[in-house]
Amino acid sequence: MERRSFLSMSAAAGASLWLCRGIGAEDANAAQWGDESKAPFVRGRGYSNLLILIELKGGNDGLNTVIPFSDPAYYTLRKNIGIRREQMIQLDERTALHPALQLLMPLWRSRQLAIVQGVGYAQPNLSHFRSIEIWDTASRADQYLRDGWLTRAFAMKPVPFDFAADGVVIGSAEMGPLANGARAIALVNRTPFVGASRLATPVPELKTAFPGGAFGSSIKTAMQVLAASDSRRMVAAGRKRMEPPWSGQGVAVIRPTLNGFDTHQNQRGQHAALLQHFAEGMMAMQAALVELGRWSDTLVMTYAEFGRRPRENESNGTDHGTVAPHFVTGARVRGGLYGVSPMLARLDGNGNLPVGVDFRHIYATVLGPWWGLDASTILQQRFESLPLLRV
Question: How far is CA 254 from the centre of its chain?
Fold first, then answer.
C-alpha cells in the first residue's frame, strides 16, 4: 500500500488483513497466552510482544517535528520559529524532519520507522489534564472512563502468571494507561514499587552506551528492567542468563516519559533540545533491544495529549493545538508516512488543524495485530487497525 494513499479511515478496511488469525481456536489461544495446562507459552506471540509507550508530555509541536516544507503557509504561520529549508532532513517531496532528529534516519532508511500524521480525536479538548485522560482511557471527548486502555486489555486477557508485572512506568508517578487495576510497577527516582511493596532495583550491566539527562536515564532504566525481568532471553550469544531481582519474568508494557513539550515561549531552542534527547534515547534503546535479543518482538510508539497550534504566538512559542504526528518503530514495522499530511489551508475557526487519524486506530493496531486481542471490546467501538506491521 502506498503510504500517502492512506488518507482516511475508510481506507483502513484493508488493514484488517493484518489481524491475527486463528485466535478463536482453544489450543492456539492456550499457546498464545501461556496456559501451561494446554500448551507452553510461545515467544513472539501475545504478550511476548513488548510494547514501549513513550509519552511526550506537554504536547509536542508536530509542525516543527514533521515539517510540511512544500506548503508556503508553513512559513507564513511561522515567520520566527519555522525551520529553515536548508537545515531540515527531507523525507520526500513534501515532508521533512527537524534537524535534531538526524539520528533516527537509519531507522527510516531501513523502513523500520513509521510516522502517522494528523493524529488526534474528534471534539478535541485543549486542557492538559482532560486530554491526556482521554488518551489514557481511550474515551470519547464527552465520555469519562475510569480504567486505562491497557488496564482493560489486561483485564480481558491477563498476562502470563509468571510475568514480573503487566507494565512498568518510568519517570512519572502517573500510571496513565495502566491506571486503576493493572499490575504495574512505578519507578520514581529509580525506586520500584508495586502498591506499597518495595522491590529490588534492577542493576544488570549492558554494553549499550546511554545518553545523559533525565530521558537517557529513563531509557537506561527501562532496558535494565527489561533485562532483569525477562529471564528467558540471553544478553548475547555465549553469555550467562541474568537472574531477575524480583520474582517473575517479563513485562508486557514499559512507559517512559519525556517531559517539557509545553513550549509556549522561546520554543526554538527548547524544542530542538527535546527532539535531540528523544532521538538519542530512541537509538540507545534500539541498540539495547538488539543487545538483549528483543528488537524483533518490540513495538515502540509515541503519544501525547495534543499537538500545538499552527500559528506561532507572540512569545515565539506555540499554544495548545489539536493533532500531531506520532512515531512507531520496531523490526516488524512497515516504515513510511501514514495518515493525513497537515492541511494548513484548512484550519478550523480556532486556527487548528483538522483531525486526520483517530488515535484509537493506533491502539487498535497494538491490541489486534500485535497482541491478538479483541480491540473493539476494549476500545468500546470498532476502530480498524493501521497497516503498520509486517506479517
Answer: 10
Helices and strands counted in the chain (H then E): 9, 14
DSSP β-ladder status, 184-188 and 165-170: parallel
The residue count of the chain comes to 391
Q: What is the pLDDT of residues 18-53, one digit of tens each?
A: 222 122 223 333 333 333 223 222 334 599 999 999
Domain positions in the chain: 3-379
Q: Is 36 exposed, middle or buried, given 0-12, 13-18 or 19+ CB atoms closer than 10 A?
A: exposed
Alpha-carbon distance of 156 to 324, in angstroms, equals 30
Tell me which H or E stretch contains 176: none
Amino acid sitting at position 181: G
Contact present, 367 and 373 (Cβ < 8 Å):
yes
pLDDT in tens, 203-214: 568 999 999 999
Give the span between the Cα atoms of 51 and 173, in whole angstroms.
19
Whole-prediction pTM: 0.84
CATH code of the domain occupying 3-379: 3.40.720
Question: Helix/strand/coil (H, E, C) string of 199-248?
Answer: CCCCCCCCCCCCCCHHHHHHHHHHHHHHHHHCCCCCCCCCCCCCCCCCCC
